[in-house]
Amino acid sequence: MKTLQAHPVPAGRPGVPRRRVALWLLAAVVLVPLLATLYVGLVEHRGGKPAYGELVQPQRPVPRLRLRTLDGKPFELRSLNGYWLMLVAAPGSCDAACQRLLFDMRQFYLAAGNDQYRVARVWLVTDDAPVNPGVLAPAAGTVILRADPTQLRAWLPLSQGEGLQGPMWLVDPLGNLMLRFPAGFDPVRALGVFGKLLYNTQSWKSRSLQPLPIVRDPSGPGPGAASPGAKP
User: Does domain 49-200 have CATH number 3.40.1400.10?
Assistant: First the structure.
């Protein structure tokens, strides 16, 4: 009588989900210490307050927002993970205060020097009005997206009675809302904080960055209109 022998079952090939979990765990091991240093050592003083601006706590990851480019195409803000994002919100008419915000963001970008490719400027247009053509030149290189103001108010931290236009927000490369500079912020002091963040995270660079859907000035390329990865 023959005896039945158990045959070992060949080990299955690791599936894609398992490999993805391993990659995420590896990313967490590498990035968690970086974020701890970033939020505590680079931004906060010993007293627990940011050097300037307001640290957003708890973290607010970029949600799924209903965003559209100016030509009506849907856009996912989370596709820009890997960039430092500077966000401002204002109507399409863009009055003098709005233009000042766009100018300040442009100055921050230019001050980034060789790190410009790591920075993206985003103007969230809070209505369906035509965009003031006079701001396209100073806003050259800016990502301009139409947004639902109700969604923005639910995501972006605002002081009591503060409107969407006025503050500037920073989103870190992992897609988390990090800092808020309130309406009327001092651009020199805010630039100091932003420059320190860039300087102290120079060793962490994304391998690939999504091309920016920027609107260029129709009269010609302006400062800051270079594509990602291009030298200024």
Answer: no
